[in-house]
Structure formats: C-alpha cells, structure tokens
Amino acid sequence: MKIIYQVAIQVFAFLIRFVAPFNHKLKLGAEGRKGLLGSLRGSFPARADGRPVAWFHAASLGEFEQGRPVMEAYRNTYPDHFVLLTFFSPSGYEIRKNYSGADLICYLPIDTRSNASEFVKIINPRIAFFIKYEFWFNYLRELRKNGSYILSFSSIFRPNQIFFKPYGGFFRKMLGYFDHLFVQNQASVALLKQAGIGACSVAGDTRFDRVRAIASSARELPEIAGFKGEDPCVIAGSVWDADMQVLIPALNALSGKLKAIIAPHEIKAEEIAGWRSKLNGRSILYSQVAAGQSPEGFDYLIIDNIGMLSSLYRYGNMAYIGGSFGVGLHNILEAATFGLPVVFGDKSYHRFQEAVDLIEKGGAFAVADNAQLTQILENWAGNAATALGTGKISAEYVLSGTGATDLIMRKVREAMG
C-alpha cells in the first residue's frame, strides 16, 4: 500500500500541473508552490532566527477558522516562538495569506517523499498541528524522524472510514505517527482505541471557541441594518447554485413577508445575475451599496465579496446554511452562536456532528425541497416568539461546546515542558 500511495501522490502532482492551466484554483496552487522549497531554503533560517517553530497546517479556509483559536492561544502562550501556517488549497491561502497571527504563511508542497523530507528539514518544527482531516504519510513520517511533537485536533472518525477497514493498515499507521489526537466525540475515541491508537481523547470542536470569539467581536454594519429595517430577515450563508434552486422558489413564495441577505460560497457574476433574474422583488449587490447606493426599499441583498458572512448573522432572524444539497454542509455554528434558528438541505449533513446535535435538540431543521423550506421560513417570519425560542436552543448549544482550545493547550504545555 505504501508503494501505491507514493505512486498515487506522484500522479496527483502531475495531474495538478497538467490541469492547472485550465482551472483557476489549481493554477493558483501550482503557481504558489513553484520554487517554494528553494525560497524557503534560502530565507527560512534567517526568518526563524533560531526560535522554536510551531507549524500549523490547514487544508482550506474552514479548517483555518477551526484552528485559529489554537493558533492564537499558542501565540499568546509562546510569543517568542515562530509560527508557520500552511494551506493545501488556494481557497484558504488566497484569503488568509496576510493573517497577522502567523510569522510565515505558504502553501504545503505536495506530499512526495522528497518534498516532505526537505520541507521538514528546512523548517525543523518543534511541534506540528494538523487541523481536522489532514493526514499526509510522508510528512508525518518525516516529522516523526525529526523528533517533532505531532498533534491532530477537531477530527471526527466514523466506522466507514478507511482507517478502520480490514485493508486499512497503511492508513492506521498514519494515525500512529501522532503523539496525540484530539477528537470531537467519544465514538471517535472508541474507534481509534479499537484500531490500536491509544493516544487520543475528546476535546470537542475548536470551532465552538472560534464562533464565540467571532460573536463577541462582530463588526457593526450600519448599511446592513439599513437594508433590514424592521422586517424579518433570513441570512443565506455559503450558498451554491443547488441551494438557490431550493431557496429562490421559497423566497418568491414569501415575497413581501421577509427579506434575505444572500452570501454565495463562491463569487461568480454570471451565476449571481441568474439568481437575481429569478427572484421576485428588488435585489441589490453589496458592491453597489459600498459604492453609495442606499439599500433601503430592496427585498434582497446579495453579498458579492468574501469575508463578511460571520458579521452578517447578527442582523438576521433566521439562517439558511448552504452546501448540504451538494459539496457538504458549511458552518452552521457561526449562525447558531448569534441565536438564530437554522435550516439546511437534508442530503449531506449527517457527517457534521453539530448539525445532527442541533436537529435532535430542536435548534435546526433539514429540508428536502422548497415546499418544506417555505413552510419553515414562513413559520419563523410570522412568529417571532417561535424563531427566538428555536434560536435560543442554538445559542445555548454553542455555549455548551466551548473549551476545546483550553484542553489542547494543556497538552501543548505538557509537551513543550
């Protein structure tokens, strides 16, 4: 299996280079990795200046936000250490490449044996953090050989994952390289221990800590308040076209009964124009508002930028979270921490513990089609007490889940001495 993995990684690296000219995201990643190791070889020793190096790796933007509380707690605890942050995906790197909480931010070179060996040799991390589902064999092996302390956090494991299959020995070996795995629930601990991985414990999900911090420091946006006025308003966060095919008919059916702020997961002008043409009522882009046009009197405000969503939820009365009709449910905790009742598609939310938990507690609902969505939104828009009561369940759930960062940092302090 090791040989298959090494060959697969080489093929993967070749395919990225081959397809990159035809795919914008892959092109960004390929260009961002070009000459990276050479640049690090020449500049990293001087930049680190002998300080202990803490390496944090996130696949993309969502994992970065999940890991941010630990990064910031580490920085506060060890201000004299050098913090390196790497991303696999351009959707994380391009948005957070100027994040002030790290001393250096770059792409992670593809996990070939030579890349991993050279990268670890250059940065020589004292401690390495892998956020959620990042398991790279060559990097883990090189870190172990280097004597680095290796942590994984906010992961969640399920019986159908390859680690726990009879033929999954190679992948279980990867898990064995970690000095400790902090997971989200006790079921994950049980699976790991059955697989012979004893260095694990429940810490929970660090996103709870992150969204509480977001809620306490959310920006005031007078233009959003001006758009909403006194009307009930649904925040549609991180939506894709598959979500809008369900959401648009529901909004049209409720025309005049509530307003909507729509934040796409990806900003595509043609796609947004298509949505606007199908919506009954008046819509306006946030870029138009930022240019000076008043949003008052419009029914729909469409956010045509990235980075505002977490501050928008404070202005909503309810939230629709995208992704579950396609790629996978996006972050529902950002809405829940503001005390909003939450609704999302019923196709792919089961992999997200917080979604399952909130449905069980009555703070969230999953819908199959626009008819069910219309019914739920109409109930919340027409009955403020019901919406507030459901939202209170969401807020209390988030509050009960905080504290993972403290547990992780306790282990870090033990490891660092």
Task: Give descriptors for this structure.
417 residues, alpha/beta, Rossmann fold, 7-stranded parallel β-sheet, 14 strands, 50% helix, 16% strand
Descriptive overview:
One of its GO terms (molecular function) is Kdo transferase activity. Keywords: Cell membrane, Lipopolysaccharide biosynthesis, Membrane, Transferase. This protein has helices spanning 2-19, 24-33, 36-48, 61-77, 90-96, 113-123, 137-146, 169-176, 186-194, 206-216, 222-228, 241-253, 269-278, 286-290, 309-312, 333-336, 353-361, 370-382, 384-400, 404-416; strands spanning 53-58, 82-87, 104-107, 127-131, 149-155, 180-183, 200-202, 233-239, 259-264, 283-285, 300-302, 318-321, 342-345, 364-367. 50% of the residues lie in helices and 16% in strands. The strands form two sheets. The chain has a seven-stranded parallel sheet, sandwiched between helices. It has a seven-stranded parallel sheet with strand order 10-11-9-8-12-13-14. The chain is globular, with a radius of gyration of 22 Å. The protein folds into two domains: 2-205 and 403-416, 3-Layer(aba) Sandwich (Rossmann fold), CATH 3.40.50.11720; 214-400, 3-Layer(aba) Sandwich (Rossmann fold), CATH 3.40.50.2000. With 417 residues, the chain is an alpha/beta fold.
Output the structural class. Answer: alpha/beta
What is the count of DSSP helices, taking H or I runs of 4+ residues? 20
> Regions with pLDDT < 50 over 5+ consecutive residues?
none
Radius of gyration equals: 22 Å
- What do the pLDDT scores average to? 94
Secondary structure tally: strands: 14
Largest sheet: 7 strands, parallel
Helix content: 40-55%
At CATH level 3, the topology of the largest domain is: Rossmann fold
Write the CATH architecture name of the largest domain: 3-Layer(aba) Sandwich
Q: Identify the CATH homologous superfamily of the largest domain.
A: 3-Deoxy-D-manno-octulosonic-acid transferase, N-terminal domain
Shape: globular
Q: Which percent range describes the beta-strand content?
A: 15-25%
Distance between the termini: 37 Å
| CATH top level assignment of the largest domain | Alpha Beta
Number of domains: 2
Give the strand order, joined by hyphens, for the main sheet: 3-2-1-4-5-6-7
